[in-house]
Amino acid sequence: MFKNNFLQMIAGALLATSIPVLAQNYPAKPVRFVVGFPPGGTNDLIIRAIAQKLTEQMGQQFIVENRGGANTAIASEMFARTAAPDGYTIMLNAPGHATNPAMMKLNFDPMKDFAFITIAAQSVNLLVAHPSLPAKSVKELLAISRARPGDIIYGSSGVGTTVHLSGALFEYMTGVKWLHVPYKGAGPALIDMLGGQFSLYFGNMPSVIGYARQGRLRGLAVTGAQRSAAAPDMPTIAESGVPGYEVTTWYGVSAPAKTPKPIFDRLQSEITRALKSSELQARFKDLGADIVANSPEQATAYIQNEINKWAKVIKAAGIKGE
């Protein structure tokens, strides 16, 4: 009995001394940075900007791994089940992380299986119309929609994404009826949007602002409570005839639960440093996203609040995951 206790004490002491040493040497090999969407969309643009800066800062590659499908649930389940808590696999979390619990049965716990490092950034969505749709404002869109119920098609990057929920909330608050067509990510959706396969899209600002500036899509309004610094001349949907309307997109970073605190703290420090760099400040501004870089405690509280908020909206709208 004494021998077993002694061995356990030795093992515990060795572990206690080895973790700080591992943290000092971290990262000693490339780090996987998982994102639950295919290449080409906003989440992909955000994650690649952060990964590039972390690679420069930390001397090891942060390799982006795209695993699209089920509004990030596929990537999140893989992460929760297989990612070792050693700092070598981290994840970009999106609003789907907060909306999925109300839409589908999950084989992981969206809070307990993740150690949230920070909310890296936030952005609003931009309601854009294909030039073939003769609506140059939200008021004109409402008039056309009411005259042609069920006729206008809006696309999204997937069921339950903020791109989808922006449209569902608009329908819910105005009483208009549109046809929703979900895609497996923003990239494929934008290709069809630009090709005129559907008329409306509530795109994440970073992924659509360039097309609106070029005139390839027509910007109508933003989904935030205030106008966006990326498009200050664009009105909000709330001020355009739908008072109280508001949807915000967020981009969070997490490690697996039980990641050793020294490694977690190193990640938090380096990610915050990257986000506050002049390069990412400029890059995110160009993308139409506002850097947040809050604490792990603030990030965790924010995501829990998002889960609670969207559960009510999804239930009211009768949205089911695919």
**Portion of residues within helices:** 40-55%
Low-confidence stretches: none
SSE series: HEHEHEHEHEHEHEHEEHHEH
Q: Major β-sheet, in short? A: 10 strands, mixed
What separation lies between the terminal Cα atoms? 54 Å
- Supply the number of helical segments: 11
The overall average pLDDT, rounded, is: 91
Secondary-structure class:
alpha/beta
How many DSSP E strands?
A: 10
The geometry reads as: globular
Tell me the β content. Answer: 15-25%
List the quaternary state of the chains.
Answer: single chain
Radius of gyration: 21 Å
In short:
With 322 residues, this protein is of the alpha/beta class. Helix content is 46%, strand content 19%. Helix 2 links the parallel strand 1 and strand 2.
Descriptive notes:
- The chain is an alpha/beta fold.
- Helices cover 46% and strands 19% of the residues.
- The protein has helices at 2-25, 42-58, 73-82, 96-103, 138-147, 162-174, 186-194, 205-214, 261-275, 278-287, 296-317, and strands at residues 31-35, 62-66, 89-93, 114-129, 153-156, 179-182, 200-204, 218-222, 248-256, 290-291.
- Strands 1, 2, 3, 4, 5, 6, 7, 8, 9 and 10 form a ten-stranded mixed β-sheet that branches.
Keywords summarizing the entry:
about 325 residues, alpha/beta, ten-stranded mixed sheet, 11 helices
Describe the SSE topology.
Layout: H1 2-25, E1 31-35, H2 42-58, E2 62-66, H3 73-82, E3 89-93, H4 96-103, E4 114-129, H5 138-147, E5 153-156, H6 162-174, E6 179-182, H7 186-194, E7 200-204, H8 205-214, E8 218-222, E9 248-256, H9 261-275, H10 278-287, E10 290-291, H11 296-317
Parallel strand pairs: 1-2, 1-3, 5-6, 5-7
Antiparallel strand pairs: 3-9, 4-7, 4-8, 4-9, 4-10
